[in-house]
Amino acid sequence: MECSDCGSAPAEAGKPVSRLAHKSISYDALVEMVRQNGGQLEIDVSTTDVGSETTMGFPWRGFKLAWAKRMLGALNGATVELATVEVGTKKTWGFPYFGYGYGWAERMQGHIAGHEVSLVAVEVGKERKSEFPWRGYGFAWAQELCGECGGQLEAELSITDVGRAKGWNFPYFGFGSAWAKKGTLTLRVPG
Fold first, then answer.
1. pLDDT in tens, 26-59
2. Contact of 63 with 100, CB cutoff 8 Å
3. Which residue from 3, 177, 10, 23 is spatially nearest to 100, judged by alpha carbons?
4. How many structural domains comprise the chain?
5. Which domain holds residue 44?
6. How far is 191 from 85, CA to CA, in rounded Å?
7. Whole-model pTM?
8. Which of 53, 120, 154, 172, CA to CA, is 20 to 30 A from 133?
């Protein structure tokens, strides 16, 4: 399978996460926990593993992609474990000799208190910078992902902090990457 934007094979995202060893709560208890909190429950999550891929293109273009590979969090016995199962990518270039690579968590899956959750990116943050001579840095991350947890709860992951890295390689390759570092996972009872 090739990327429709750049023609390259997509980065390997990883496999869905397995459930952490923790005390699960019933789905009804999770829904009730959200209801008792005014119909909305927020859980802070942090990235524990970053995925990345670096490629070079002729002439003088370097691309580094990064994404939040795994995120964890917990609140009142509700443990959250998320993993990226699909990476969004885009590669572009600008004159002269700047390559910009973008990678982000396009789709995440995991568990909340032992119950499956599935999220899809609905907003992607992007930045593009360049430095003399011939170095381009592209930064991208999933800013907001939305989905559901079971049939009764909506789930939304909003990113609150972004990690960034940049480097370069001879001759004239600039590498920029960004990933979701911290976020808030909000569970809601649709209403």
1. 999 999 999 999 999 999 999 999 998 877 766 6
2. yes
3. 177
4. 1
5. 27-188
6. 29
7. 0.81
8. 53
